[in-house]
UniProtKB/TrEMBL annotation:
<dbReference type="Pfam" id="PF00577">
    <property type="entry name" value="Usher"/>
</dbReference>
<feature type="domain" description="PapC-like C-terminal">
    <location>
        <begin position="790"/>
        <end position="852"/>
    </location>
</feature>
<dbReference type="Pfam" id="PF13954">
    <property type="entry name" value="PapC_N"/>
</dbReference>
<dbReference type="InterPro" id="IPR042186">
    <property type="entry name" value="FimD_plug_dom"/>
</dbReference>
<dbReference type="InterPro" id="IPR018030">
    <property type="entry name" value="Fimbrial_membr_usher_CS"/>
</dbReference>
<dbReference type="InterPro" id="IPR025885">
    <property type="entry name" value="PapC_N"/>
</dbReference>
<keyword id="KW-1029">Fimbrium biogenesis</keyword>
<dbReference type="Pfam" id="PF13953">
    <property type="entry name" value="PapC_C"/>
</dbReference>
<comment type="similarity">
    <text>Belongs to the fimbrial export usher family.</text>
</comment>
<dbReference type="InterPro" id="IPR037224">
    <property type="entry name" value="PapC_N_sf"/>
</dbReference>
<keyword id="KW-0732">Signal</keyword>
<feature type="domain" description="PapC N-terminal">
    <location>
        <begin position="72"/>
        <end position="213"/>
    </location>
</feature>
<keyword id="KW-0813">Transport</keyword>
<dbReference type="InterPro" id="IPR025949">
    <property type="entry name" value="PapC-like_C"/>
</dbReference>
<feature type="signal peptide">
    <location>
        <begin position="1"/>
        <end position="34"/>
    </location>
</feature>
<keyword id="KW-0998">Cell outer membrane</keyword>
<keyword id="KW-0812">Transmembrane</keyword>
């Protein structure tokens, strides 16, 4: 025999936010109990005897997994349960009528967060979601495939009524709307694609993105030298337009200060063409021709706007630093990347090249001031696009290879790729300038052996009456071997004749004096680059090789092989590098270098943040060297990393170094110092940003191309953003999220675990789809005040019954009481004194309260109040509903 004492409903937690949904969750155990009591019966409802004085009318509750319903007797609840207040709560419609923000799923795939209108359906007497024609198309329904035309005027189309066999399920607890739609009625799959109507152009804003590097080197017996460099990216966003400037500043001992503005341009989306329009000083971006700097206009395809598109390609730069070193990367003579690295191997994978082709020059500046210069080829993958797709680029303007050159001819350049079939792409391009023209044709094929493309460019150049002609061939090959996990990439360029010139070669030859015009000829005859990566034995093996040969048959080459793996908790990396550099085309001056390096890393403890010890042993032409040290994170709230090392170089010099880095909401900073027998060196770097927007000015971490702002309203400082270390809201309630993916759904979530105790959020997750270069805004509503748990009792001191509706002095509904008469809610600072109005079974009572200042250590205040009966007041908003109640007390 079950009695109410066996029920576990009294364990329900206090209800505060979203009272209807929360209370349904709280009532679930009671519903399960009622369902269990019905096991012995064949009908879908059960009637449980109740004491005569507590006898109440059963309420129909929607079944959890079917359209059937079961009766729930209010006598199960402790106290004098209010059928009137709970009837709406426990009705078969588990969502209130009106607009609800839900996560929308189509065939188990999340498509975004939408505001959906729920209206009463007279056929089913349920609150059901309404759709219009535009939203049906956005979620992927092909209206032409439906059995009947869809009204363009209706704003309340019900999915099961217009799409055969479609179903709709609303999960109120998770605020999810699940749509099941037969595949035959959907448009072709667009995985990862977001409809352009949902793209966000972002806010009007201005920003400065900076990277500052400072070095001070001191060699024994010599004066100290200082070096300062600053990489600046400035931007202004106005509507769809993005105005950008990239500049570089250098200064140092024995060198004059230099400020170089690399390029300034305006850019915007051309959505109808899935393209970008650029105007100003920028670089050409062609898969067939080398990139050149120019002033003019350019339009090119933006593959990121398309479904399932590639997000671009950038090389990975690997190398080894012998000390605290600075790495500079140049392309076309301009610095495009600078960073400080600790001793040992490094890999740079976040490079943003200025064009689609052009060798990269990597300079490693060691702590003692010595420099090593490496070169790495950079070229795009094979010429391939999908069947029926056209990818293009068009540029016209005035060439400006660098600011010193006087020769600045006008030119026109264009190229296109077209997928004639699923496995074949045709390519063509043309460049025309004063006394110069070049034509290119190519084909790309996807075969069983991999993706391969071949293109040939024929150029004609006339300088001072002398004509040069030539042809260059490019072969590109990529293959991923699924069975072994191997990645193979080979790029080869071969000039068939010495007269071949690129547009840059032509301008250089025109600028040079007659006796130096040889420099206008391309000296390199052949270039081969190969990269292979292969999983082996649970680790990874990589090989990178390069071969370069000039017209004098002098050659240079480089080979780098490495393997990384682990044995238990010990990680290791073994690498071998061999280089032979050709330093001059006027003679066989060569330099050879062979290096072998072994690095071991061992955790000094358990857990993901345990310190790591490392040991590096290397051998090169100079001798043997060893480095040993440790790195990790300091046990503080702020993310502070450290690394200490000591060692002995191949020249016999002992050294020690220390590095400290931190990531805060306004910058990422790193400082290092090294000391040796013959030299000492210190460095400091800071990367961050300043963003001005309609809500004020905020400092942030270094920015990517596309960024977002998280806004908490009203402003709450110190709220973190998940997945972005160190990012927190400032005093104005804004936080800068430094990276976002354009044209794709970006989920922004607040880290409320460490949020101020006096703040509560309606929804801590937002979804934003920014356009390229946008400063998009995600707004989070917050309530700021004091958490209070009210324990409400009647005039006799008994707890108010479960389900009594509680409103504040303004008539706003705060929630319902739990079985012990409690309610947990947020009270604003303006409501430190006031009263609560409670309604139950058509009766009203009022409880007055006065709050004390809440201590920082308290999660909430606890107040016990007595509720005094009162008569309805037609002037109070909360009483109007009671006056309109039906005769049986139902509101």
């Amino acid at each position: 025999m079950f009695t109410k004492n066996h029920l576990f409903c009294h364990r329900i937690h206090p209800i505060s936010r979203q009272p209807l949904a929360a209370l349904r969750i709280a009532l679930l155990p009671c519903m399960v109990f009622a369902a269990c009591a019905a096991q012995a019966q064949t009908t879908s409802s059960v009637t449980v005897p109740a004491p005569e004085e507590n006898k109440t009318e059963p309420v129909q509750v929607a079944a959890l997994d079917s359209g059937d319903s079961m009766a729930f007797n209010m006598a199960f609840l402790q106290g004098n349960a209010s059928t009137a207040d709970l009837r709406t709560l426990l009705s078969s419609s588990n969502v209130a009528e009106g607009v609800q923000r839900v996560d929308l799923y189509v065939n188990q795939q999340r498509t975004g967060r939408r505001d959906i209108t729920f209206k009463r359906n007279p056929r089913t007497d349920e609150n059901e979601p309404c759709f219009d024609q535009e939203m049906l198309e956005q979620i992927g329904i092909d209206l032409s495939k439906l059995p009947a035309p869809v009204s363009t005027e209706s704003t309340c189309l019900r999915l099961p009524e217009i799409v055969p066999d479609a179903t709709v399920v609303y999960e109120s607890a998770q605020l999810r709307l699940l749509l099941s739609i037969p595949q035959i009625y959907l448009s072709p799959s667009k995985r990862g694609y977001v409809d352009p109507s949902l793209w966000d152009e972002g806010q009007t804003a201005a920003f400065v993105n900076y990277g500052v590097n400072v070095r001070r080197d001191q060699s024994k017996g010599m004066s100290a030298t200082n070096h300062l460099s600053a990489d600046l990216r400035l931007g202004v966003n106005i509507g769809p337009w993005r105005i950008r400037n990239n500049s570089y500043y250098t200064s140092g001992t024995n060198r004059s200060s230099s400020f170089t503005s690399q390029n300034t341009y305006a850019q915007r989306d051309i959505v109808s063409l899935k393209s970008q329009l650029l105007a100003g000083q920028t670089y050409t971006r062609s898969p067939l021709f080398d990139s050149v700097r120019f002033m003019g206009v350019q339009m090119l395809s933006d593959e990121a706007m398309r479904p399932d598109s590639e997000q671009g390609y950038a090389p990975v730069i690997r190398g080894t630093a012998e000390s605290n070193a600075t790495v500079e990367v140049r392309q076309n003579g301009y610095v495009i990347y600078t960073t400080n690295v600790a001793p040992g191997p490094f890999a740079i994978s976040d490079l943003a090249p200025s064009g689609s082709n052009g060798d990269l020059e990597i300079t490693i500046i060691e702590a003692d001031g010595s420099r090593r210069i490496l070169r790495q080829a950079f070229s795009a993958p094979p010429l391939m696009v999908r069947e029926g797709r056209l990818s293009y680029d068009i540029a016209a303007g005035q060439l400006r290879l660098n600011d010193e050159m006087q020769e600045r001819p006008h030119f026109v350049s264009g190229s296109m790729l077209y997928g004639v079939s699923a496995n074949t792409t045709l390519a063509a391009g043309v460049q025309v300038s004063k006394d110069f023209n070049a034509y290119s044709l190519g084909v790309g094929m996807n075969t069983q052996l991999g993706a391969v493309s071949l293109d040939a460019t024929r150029s004609t150049s006339r300088v001072q009456g002398q004509q040069s002609q030539g042809t260059s061939m490019n072969l590109r090959y990529n293959k991923f071997i699924e069975a072994t996990g191997s990645n193979v990439s080979i790029n080869m360029r071969h000039d068939l004749s010495r007269g071949y010139r690129t547009l840059s070669d032509h301008v250089t030859a025109t600028e040079a004096p007659a006796h130096l015009r040889l420099y206008g000829q391309r000296d390199s005859r052949q270039r081969i680059d190969a990269n292979i990566s292969q999983p082996v034995g649970g680790g990874n093996l990589y090989l990178s090789a390069s071969y370069n040969k000039n017209w004098e048959n002098n050659s240079s080459n480089s080979l780098s092989v490495g393997y990384s793996n682990h044995i238990g908790k010990v990680n290791y990396n073994l690498s071998y590098t061999r280089t032979r550099n050709l330093q001059s085309s006027f003679g066989p001056s060569r330099s050879h270098d062979n290096a072998v390096m072994l690095t071991l890393s061992i955790p000094l403890g358990s857990g993901p943040n345990a310190p790591q010890s490392f040991t590096t042993v290397s051998h090169d032409n100079s001798g043997n060297a060893v480095q040993a040290g440790a790195s990790g994170l300091l046990p503080t709230e702020r993310e502070i990393s450290y690394a200490v090392a000591g060692g002995r170089s191949a020249a016999g010099e002992s050294s020690a170094s220390v590095n400290v880095g931190t990531a805060s909401s306004f910058a990422r900073m790193n400082a290092g110092y090294s000391y040796g027998n013959q030299h000492s060196s210190g460095n400091f770097s800071a990367n961050g940003s300043i963003v001005a927007h309609s809500g004020g000015v905020n400092l942030g971490q270094a920015l990517g191309e596309t960024i977002m702002l998280a806004k908490v309203e009203p402003p709450v400082a110190g709220v973190g953003v998940s997945s972005h270390a160190g990012v927190k809201t400032g005093s104005n309630g804004y936080a800068i999220i430094p990276n976002a993916t354009p044209y794709r759904s970006n989920h922004v979530s607040l880290d409320t675990r460490n949020a101020p105790r006096n703040a509560e959020f309606d929804n801590a997750v937002q979804q934003i789809v920014p356009t390229r270069g946008a400063v998009a805004l995600a707004t989070f509503k917050a309530e700021v005040g004091y958490r209070v748990q009210f324990e409400l009792r009647d005039e006799q001191g008994a707890a108010l019954p479960f389900g009594a509706m509680v409103r504040d002095a303004a008539g706003q509904q705060l929630g319902m009481t739990d079985p012990r008469g409690r309610i947990l809610t947020m009270v604003s600072p303006e409501q430190m004194r006031g009263y609560l109005d409670i309604s139950r079974n058509g009766q009203l009572c009022r409880a007055r309260y006065e709050l004390a200042e809440q201590a920082e250590s308290l999660n909430y205040q606890l107040l016990r109040l007595n509720c005094v009966k009162r008569e309805p007041d037609p002037m109070l908003p909360g009483d109007l509903a009671k006056q309109g109640a039906s005769q049986d007390g139902t509101v």
